[in-house]
Amino acid sequence: MNKITETVIEADPKVPVIRTARDFAATPEQLFRAHTDPALFAQWVGPDGTSTRIERWDASTGGSWRYVSVHEGTEYGFHGCFHEVRPDRIVQTFTFDGDPDGVALETMWFEDLGDGRTRLRTQSLVDSFESRDAWLRSGMEVGVNDGYAKLERLIADGAV
Amino acid sequence: MNKITETVIEADPKVPVIRTARDFAATPEQLFRAHTDPALFAQWVGPDGTSTRIERWDASTGGSWRYVSVHEGTEYGFHGCFHEVRPDRIVQTFTFDGDPDGVALETMWFEDLGDGRTRLRTQSLVDSFESRDAWLRSGMEVGVNDGYAKLERLIADGAV
Predict the structure, then answer these.
(1) Which of A32, A28, A1 is closest to A117 using CA atoms?
(2) Residue B76's closest CA among B100, B59, B60?
(3) Residue B83 with chain A: CB contacts under 8 Å
(4) Per residue in B72-105, pLDDT tens?
(5) Which residues of B touch A129 (CB under 8 A)?
(6) Neighbouring C-beta atoms of residue A48, cutoff 10 Å
(7) How far is the C-alpha of B65 from the C-alpha of B63, rounded, in Å?
(8) CA-to-CA distance for A93 and B107, rounded, in angstroms?
(9) pLDDT tens across B31-82, in order?
(10) What ipTM score was computed for the predicted complex, to two decimals?
(11) Quick one: which of A106, B25, B98, B155 is 20 to 30 A from A59 by CA?
(12) Which of B12, B14, B15 to mutate to test binding with chain A, by most A CBs within 10 Å of its CB?
């Protein structure tokens, strides 16, 4: 298995899914914590220059979440519920307030690569290719890349 | 718009989605209640001969649910979270205990047809055609048809 040092972002050709993959110098437990501890999550999610305010957060199976990201004075709200939160996988729903009828089903997997490294894979599923491709055109890769770079620095700094 | 007196069940050709549609002699408010009141829901969901035990039920945005259906002595558990519960639409996740890694994103719409009639449309989205087609082969249409027939009788009896 090759190392994935940059974030890989792929659109599935057959189903309306976006997948990402990236390796981190962290254990699965650390990556799980970075996705479930609200104070940690707020430090890395989103593009550079964004500050994130957590408004609701119960990262457990059947819980729910809501946060607002502030970028250059504009607020962007997101919310969803946690379908399942377990050490190797989180499944949650995701809606952007700006598109209130749009819903993605998101899955994150924490795959232990050994030697203190973990592959983070994600999948976002929506109900049409039009919605999926609108997400891809929205510049989501900036948020993903910037966010994971911030997460990598937090890990290197021993903050996770 | 034609009346839909039998349940229409369709597999989308392009995305891994199952859709259903059926008209009821009920208001949107009544159909909403039949899907959110646990005592009512337990009376109609599932195939004939099934009894349903609600184990967790918070039918509100960010809530969660779990029920067990008992059919000929065998228990079948299902669970998920409520992404959004609003008068015209419910979005929730859905997992069958027998396939714990499988997750569907389900949407129900209550469309007012006027004259005390409502069209109930549903959509189940999964992440592969294989999973979708396995659902279709599982005999799900029996549960859907039997369930909606029970719901229709409850409505006719004034129980909703």
Answers:
(1) A28
(2) B100
(3) 80-81, 93, 95, 103
(4) 999 999 999 999 999 999 999 999 999 999 999 9
(5) 14-15
(6) 12
(7) 7
(8) 12
(9) 999 999 999 999 999 999 999 999 999 999 999 999 999 999 999 999 999 9
(10) 0.94
(11) B98
(12) B15
To the nearest 10°, the Cα dihedral for B64, B29, B91, A43?
Answer: -70
Q: Could you tell me if A13 lies within 8 Å of chain B, comparing CB atoms?
A: no
φ/ψ bin of A121: left (φ > 0), alpha (ψ from -120 to 50), beta (otherwise): beta
Burial of A114 (0-12, 13-18, 19+ CB in 10 A): exposed
Cβ of B84 within 8 Å of Cβ of A95? The answer is: yes
Domains of chain B: 17-156 (3.30.530.20)
A94: closest chain B residue by CA: B83
Say whether A20 sits in a helix, a strand or coil: strand
Touching check for A91 and chain B: CB below 8 Å?
yes
d(CA A133, CA A138): 9
- List the single residue in A56, A80, A105 with the smallest CB-CB distance to B103: A105
R_g (Cα) of chain A, nearest Å: 15
Q: Give the span between the Cα atoms of A20 and B90, in whole angstroms.
A: 29
pTM to 2 decimal places? 0.95
B128 at the A interface (CB within 8 A)? yes
Residue B123 CB partners (closer than 8 Å, separation 6+): A127, B17, B18, B19, B106, B107
Nearest alpha-carbon partner for B67 in B56, B59, B75, B81: B56
* Cβ separation B129–A16 shorter than 8 A: no
Give the pLDDT confidence of A104-144 residue by residue, as tens digits.
Answer: 999 999 999 999 999 999 999 999 999 999 999 988 899 99
